[in-house]
Amino acid sequence: MADKRSEYVSSVASSEALQLYNEAVELFVNHKGSFIDLVKRAVEIENDFILARCLLGCMLCDVYSVPNPTEVKMHLDVVNECYPKANDREKLHIQTFREASLGHIKKATEILDQITMRYPQDFHAVKLSFLYYKSTGEFIRMRNILSRAVTHCPKEDPLYPHLLSQYAFSLEETNERQYAEELCRESLTLQPINPWASHTMAHIIEETKDPQKGVDFLCSTQEDWNKTPYAFHLLWHLSLYYLDLGQSDKVLDVFDAKMVPLLSKSSPVFYLVDLASLLWRLNLLNIDPDEKRWQVILDTYRSKIGVFSHSWVNAHLMMSLCYGKVTADTARLALANQVIQSMEVYSKESVSSDCSVADLLGVPVCNALLAYGQEKYDEVLSLMLPLRYDFIKFGGSWAQRQVFELTIIMAAIKANDLSQALALIIELKSQKPHNKMLESLYRRVLDESRLRIGVKTLNGTAAIET
Question: Bridge-partner residues for 9, per DSSP?
C-alpha cells in the first residue's frame, strides 16, 4: 500500500493502520504530542506492520536510557520473521532497528543515511536520524539529511515548517547562524506553534544577540510553546538568559515555580540535564542555589546512579552530586564514586556506540567534576583541558556543552592560572559576543592579571607596559 505523502510503498495491508502510522510520524516530526500510542494502535491492527514495529523498537532503544530487552526482542522477532517478504526500504529499516537494538547507533545512522538518500521523504527515517545525530554530535551529517528532506518536501506540506526548523537547528550547530535565523523566522511565520523553531531561535539569540532579546522572545511567544513537549527545555533557555543578565533571583524563580512542578519520578533524563546544568552554572559563579534544590534533582533521579547510562546523562548526574564542597558530605561522595565506577565498567564492557565516548569523555569528565567539588582545581584542568575540542562527541547542543567550558574557566580562575582563564574566556566570548556574564568575567580576570603585573613590577622585576 502506498504512503499518502510520498507514495512510497509499504507491505501493510490495512489502510487504517497505515493512517495511524502516518499520523504518528507527523507527531514525531512536529513535536506536538505523543506519537507512541498511535504506533501501538497501528501494530494492534496489523501485527506484521514492519515500519510501525521498527519505529516502536528504535524508540525503545533510546540512547539515553536502558531499554527493556523483552519488549525490544518482541518487536525484533516480528520484523526479522517479516524480513524475507519486506521491500527494500523496509529491509533497511529492519537493519536500522537491529543495529539500534545492539547499541550500535553509528551503524544505525549509516543505514538511515542510505534510506534518506533513496527515499528523502521518509520522514520516519529523517527524524530518527535527527535524534541519533544529536546524541552523537554529528551535526554536519544531520544538516545534510535535513537539507535533502527540506528540498524534497513540498512547501504546502504541514510538516515543511517543522523540517525547516530542524534544518535551521543543524545550521546553527554548524556555525551557519545567519542562514539558520533566516530559515527559522520563515518556519515560525509559516507555523507559529512550532516548538522546535522556538527552540532553535532561542539558540540563535543566545549566541548572536543581547540576552534581553532572548527573554523578550520567549516571554512574548510563551503561549505558542508552553504546552508542548519542549516547554521544560525552553524554560531552561529562559533561565540562561536571566543568568547572562546577572539576574540569578529570576533563574531560581523559574526553577521553583515553573520547572520543579513539572517533575515526577518518570520525568525524562533531559529534565535532569537541564536542571543539573542550570544549578551547576550557579555553583560555578559562587551563587549558592540552596541544598534543597539540589535535593529535588537527586530525589527525582537517584535511581539512575550506578545504572549503565549514556555518558551525557552521567556527567550531569555528577553535577547534582558534586556541588559545593563534596568532601564534607560522605553520602554524596560515596554516590559520586559509584557513578564513576559504573562509568568505568560501562566504558569497558558495553557494546554500545557510547562506550568509546564514556572512555574518552565520560570517565575523565566525571572525575573532573568530582575534583571540582573537592577544590582540586589543578586536577580539573589536567583532566578537562585536553578534552575541550572533543566535548561535541557528548552530543547535546553547543549551548548545553558550554557548561564544561565554563567549568574549565572557573577552575583556572580558582587555580590562580589567570593567563589560561583569560585565554579560555576570550575563546568562548568570541563565539558569544553579547554575553554579559562572559564580558564581566573577562573584565574581572583582565583587571586581576594587570594588578598582578603591577605588583611584580613594584617588586623589581622587569617593567611591562600595559
Answer: 2
